[in-house]
Amino acid sequence: MESRLTDSHNNTGALEVRLRSTESQLEDLQAEITVLSFRLNEADDRLTNSDELKVAFSAGLTDSGSVGPFDEETTLIFSKTITNIGRAYNQTAGVFTAPVRGLYFFSFTAADYLKGYMGLYLYRNNRPIVFNLDLNDHGGYASTSNGVALQLEEGDRVRLSLPASYRLYDDSRNFSVFSGFLLFPL
Fold first, then answer.
1. DSSP string covering 10-76, please?
2. What is the pLDDT of residues 17-47, one digit of tens each?
3. Is residue 25 domain-shared with residue 81, that is, in the same domain?
4. With 90 as the cut, is the pLDDT of residue 55 above it?
5. 178: number of CA atoms within 13 Å, CB side?
6. With contact defined as beta carbons under 8 Å apart, do 160 and 131 qualify?
7. Choosing a second label site near 180 at 20 to 30 A (CA), which of 25, 98, 118, 154?
8. pLDDT tens column, 88-109
9. What is the mean pLDDT of residues 138-158?
10. What is the residue range of 79's domain?
11. Is pLDDT at 1 greater than 70 in this prediction?
């Protein structure tokens, strides 16, 4: 009987050691959960309550059909605002003005349906950055598209321009669209 008591006492001691070890591990896990929960809440707050500037726009060219050809290069006025979050795109001037220094992405699609050249320049301030050209030699709908990421300083201006003797087409279906958005501030 005494040996059974000793065995039981030894087993109880071993169980107590294992229990304390498990309790210690549980406390460590609870501390880690608390830290992770705090970090998750912090990240969620940044995403949902962000004071970061949000800038994005898309605009269609016109509902009136053909644009151009003109005798000289002409800034295009994309007058049909689809989206203008942050109000950085001025639809009466056809110009996007960077509200902050940052990396921005711009894209455009231009279309025409008559034979001839269609194309356009994307300018940063007064410097051409991208030129897209297409010869519509079949006389039917044709389009050209491009996109570019630009590092802009606050106040830099981006616009699209139609070269002299070129033309584009747009109507209520938005064949010709200019878009841009802030990827992140720098």
1. HHHHHHHHHHHHHHHHHHHHHHHHHHHHHHHHHHHHHHHS------EEEEE--SSEEE---SS-EE-
2. 777 877 777 677 677 767 766 676 665 555 4
3. no
4. yes
5. 27
6. no
7. 118
8. 999 999 999 999 999 999 999 9
9. 93
10. 56-185
11. no
Kindly state the tokens that stand for 151: 């590092």
Contact 103, 151 (CB under 8 A): yes
Q: What is the CATH number of the domain that holds 108?
A: 2.60.120.40
Q: 51, 74, 91 — which closes off a domain?
A: 51
The one-letter amino acid code at 139 reads G
Tokens matching residue 18: 């294992």
Domain end marker among 11, 28, 51: 51
Q: Which two tokens stand for residue 28?
A: 């460590």
Distance, CA of 182 to CA of 105 (rounded, Å): 6
Element (H, E) at 104: strand 102-112
Identify whether the C-beta of residue 151 lies closer than 8 Å to the C-beta of residue 186.
yes
